[in-house]
Amino acid sequence: MEDGRKTARGSGGARPVRGEGAAARPGGPGARGPGGPFRPGFWRSPLRGPRLTSVLGIVLLAGIPVLFVTGLLSYAAYNPDLARNDRTPDKGLLGFFLFPWPTEPHWLYRLTQGVHVTLGVALVPVLLAKLWSVIPRLFTWPPVRSVTHALDRLSLLLLVGGGLFVFATGLLNIQLEYVFPGSFYPLHFYGSWVFMAAFAAHAALRVPRALRVLRGRRARTEEEAGAMAALAAPEPAAPTLSRRGALTAVGAGSLLLAATTAGQSLGGPLRSTAVLAPRGREPGGGPNGFQINKTAAAAGIRAADIGADWRLTVRGGPRELVFTRTELLELPQHRAALPIACVEGWSTSDQLWSGVRLADLAALAGWERDAPGVFVESAQRAGTFRSAGLRANQVRDPLSLLALRVNGAGLSADHGYPARVIVPANPGVHNTKWVTRLTFGGNA
């Protein structure tokens, strides 16, 4: 069992030296601080040290880039460079990576967003443990010793603050309890870029040091040796747990969170294990007994909006057409087995949808060849995503439907009756429900 008394020499470095070791540690000799957390004896856990911090840092180094890339893919799936879809209009150069979101494989968004959410939840214990391991370094005194030190402190502030903000907004969005002012999408998007910029800079500076610690090698400079020594408590308390035990506890916590989250994306028998997901478990039986991203009541749908007087208007081409639901059912019907996958990480298994192909409706409106994108509008009165733009490749996919039925039955009101859009690999909220108007060529 480790007692936390090892200096940087015992962790692969040299003895602490004055200037960045003894004097630079919180409240060290020659640096009288205001007491409290700035006092050298305040932080006494024997678990803190270079090796614990290095192991946790390497885990985050492996996980956070995957989290960031899958987040960017999720953002791209919303086709935000279409003007009417753009919820971050000032993204500028940050949107350099956007590309036409594909429709194949049809489970693509279900996979990328499932990985994003499950991995993000699983990394929470690791992130908190990493912050705990280095928290004494946040209370160095004096707070700023030079211009270089000030820049290092600023980058650390952006790293810690950005990480906490991004993880907090993501977790609250997953739990449908988003409380931050403003829209989740731009706040999470910009926060992620700030966090990743700080993370990349921090990784470039700290990863070589962490690898040397894990390989048992000495620090290359006295400054590095002092910085590593400053991670350990100068006056450690009696140990109650080894560092290996602490890492085991963190790993077990991550695995438990992953196990109680992943089922909402994997489906099947594992869906019942998603006890931490608001929409992880099956909502009921019957043809319409699968997850719903928003109910008709929550969307402000009234009986008159979807009653006998409901009509679908198709325009944007040489001809404008108006259909009743009966007339739509008389058109050639096609089927597609597709899931619903949502930004909160949950998804359904493939459901069997039937209805009219979007490409066929474009042809009826006069786009017999090369159907363009479409702007879809809903009868929804409340909440966000009352409309959505779809690209031409999404309209032309033979599995893209204006769905009228699901699993052999008519759509329920909560699933979009009288008609809804269903497109392969499309985020759930862009599979617009209660559709009233399709404008082809009008999604720019």
Automatic annotation (TrEMBL):
It comes from the Bacteria. Residues 27-38 have a biased composition (Gly residues). Residues 14-26 have a biased composition (Low complexity). Residues 1-39 are annotated as: Disordered. Keywords: Membrane, Transmembrane, Transmembrane helix. The chain crosses the membrane at residues 52-78, 115-135, 156-176, 188-208. The keyword Membrane applies. Residues 308-440 form the Oxidoreductase molybdopterin-binding domain. The keyword Transmembrane applies. GO terms for molecular function: oxidoreductase activity. InterPro entries: Mopterin_OxRdtase_euk (IPR008335), OxRdtase_Mopterin-bd_dom (IPR000572), OxRdtase_Mopterin-bd_sf (IPR036374). This is Oxidoreductase molybdopterin-binding domain-containing protein. It comes from Streptomyces xinghaiensis.
